[in-house]
Design the sequence.
């Protein structure tokens, strides 16, 4: 009664409107619409498969919804850097660039590299991170602070005193003229 356990790896290529999925080693593919119904269909299918690992390429935030949904259902999800996926594809000779091929490359990446499935940030943490990032974008560079200024002959107060004196003289001259 030796049962062989077959590990299954899933790659999901995320686009704005669709999800392309490849399940290894049987090379099963799915193409679903990236909406509530499509996500529900995919979750049901992946729960049946019980994958060892699901790999999704980071795509500027489009991946967050599906990664969060899968992780919340107890499925092991790793979101990887696009450069890692691209380098892996080149190394394995997968130069064709279609969504289905990308999903297959991600599944192969999951099997070969086995990136860690990490706990994803909850919705409140993601919202806070978004606000902090936006604040950083809006703050002028000078207000962010470049750290304490170190004095050098170039930045010494005596260098600027002449400027201040000159500015005061200019103001007085301007007042007399006016």
Sequence:
């Amino acid at each position: 009664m030796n049962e062989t356990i077959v590990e299954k790896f899933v790659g999901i290529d995320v686009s704005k409107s669709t999800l392309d999925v490849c399940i290894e080693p049987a090379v099963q593919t799915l193409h679903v619409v990236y909406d509530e119904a499509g996500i529900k269909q995919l979750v049901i299918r992946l729960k049946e498969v019980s994958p060892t690992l699901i790999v999704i390429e980071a795509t500027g935030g489009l991946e967050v919804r599906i990664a969060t949904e899968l992780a919340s259902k107890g499925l092991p999800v790793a979101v990887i850097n696009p450069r890692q996926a691209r380098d892996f594809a080149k190394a394995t000779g997968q130069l064709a660039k279609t969504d289905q091929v990308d999903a297959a490359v991600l599944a192969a990446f999951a099997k070969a590299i086995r990136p860690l499935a990490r706990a994803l940030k909850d919705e409140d943490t993601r919202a806070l991170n978004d606000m902090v990032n936006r604040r950083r974008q809006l703050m002028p560079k000078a207000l962010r602070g470049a750290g304490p200024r170190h004095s050098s002959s170039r930045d010494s107060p005596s260098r600027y005193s002449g400027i201040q004196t000159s500015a005061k003289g200019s103001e007085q001259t301007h007042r007399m003229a006016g």
Observations:
- The longest helix spans residues 157-177.
- The beta strands are 9-14, 18-24, 28-33, 53-57, 77-80.
- Residues 4 and 25 are 14 Å apart (CA to CA).
- The mean pLDDT is 83.
